[in-house]
Amino acid sequence: xxxxxxxxxxxxxxxxxxxxxxxxxxxxxxxxxxxxxxxxxxxxxxxxxxxxxxxxxxxxxxxxxxxxxxxxxxxxxxxxxxxxxxxxxxxxxxxxxxxxxxxxxxxxxxxxxxxxxxxxxxxxxxxxxxxxxxxxxxxxxxxxxxxxxxxxxxxxxxxxxxxxxxxxxxxxxxxxxxxxxxxxxxxxxxxxxxxxxxxxxxxxxxxx
Length: 208
Known about the structure:
The protein has helices spanning 12-15, 33-42, 48-51, 53-73, 169-207; strands spanning 21-30, 94-95, 98-103, 107-117, 120-123, 126-127, 140-152, 155-166. The longest helix is centred in the last third of the chain and has 39 residues, at 169-207.
């Protein structure tokens, strides 16, 4: 199926214009753009690894590696996943994972700043309004952008884009090693799971 493209800028173009890595995934969904966008807002990041075995395996492997490194280096054990839901539409504007922009019924962008290499993941508490200008050395900024585009009256193209940019050369070297050793393929799996979760919610909503 062919979908007309547009040169209109996306949220990512100003949130993170010069990435070190990019992931793009697309999915055709049965439903109009409004319904699909509402479904995007209901996607729960906490529920993703519980629903998708491939994501659960990725998270489990990373968690095991981090616990081992922490034990060897005498670091505190990495924090566990949050107890409550993390629905995309309800993400805060201040915290670790934050909503960066929301333009219904077209795009929703959220992101995080942290270090996730060398056997340890740590997220930085940020304010969404400071994300674009954040440049503290030693970190990487990641943005996820979910967008919808009408194909016809009953079909929508749902797209997921992820971009990561580092804040200095030292972090860039670490990130490139991290990305090279299979993390890029894992990021594809995660973005695909986000899209499929939204598709299931949208098509279930249509059936209802």
